[in-house]
Automatic annotation (TrEMBL):
Organism annotation: Leptosia nina
Coarse class of the protein's main subcellular location: mitochondrion
One GO biological process term: mitochondrial electron transport, ubiquinol to cytochrome c
Name assigned to this protein: Ubiquinol-cytochrome C reductase hinge domain-containing protein
Cellular localisation: Mitochondrion inner membrane
Record flagged with keyword Cell membrane: no
Signal peptide boundaries: none
Superkingdom in the source lineage: Eukaryota
Membrane topology: Peripheral membrane protein
């Protein structure tokens, strides 16, 4: 009985010496194909509409009022004037123009 135990102690418990080799045989490996799919560059329709609306004459009026105010404020060294009102007016009319067509362009 002791001879059997001593011979078992000297034997390796497993025949596989490299577990990576065993894993390659047992575990299936799935690899994704390397396909280059050209994706369409997404363009924000709101940005396009803002650019288009900015060019309209009625919106250019508000833009020029804002620019005049901005130039006036920048020309002075000590002033409490800000162009907040002019900027808000410009953004308001710009957004109003954009909102007319924005949801028609969304997919």
């Amino acid at each position: 009985m002791q001879s059997k135990i001593s011979t078992l102690k000297n034997r390796p418990y497993c025949c596989v010496t490299d577990f990576g080799e065993m894993a390659d045989k047992v575990v299936p490996v799935v690899r994704a194909e390397d396909e280059e799919v050209e994706e369409e560059e997404l363009v924000d329709p709101q940005v396009q509409l803002r650019e288009e609306c900015h060019e309209k004459p009625d919106i250019q009026t508000f833009w020029s009022k804002y620019q005049q105010c901005n130039d006036r404020v920048n020309s002075r060294s000590n002033t409490t004037e800000t162009c907040e009102e002019e900027l808000i007016d410009y953004v308001h009319v710009l957004d109003k123009c954009v909102n007319k067509d924005l949801f028609k362009r969304l997919k």
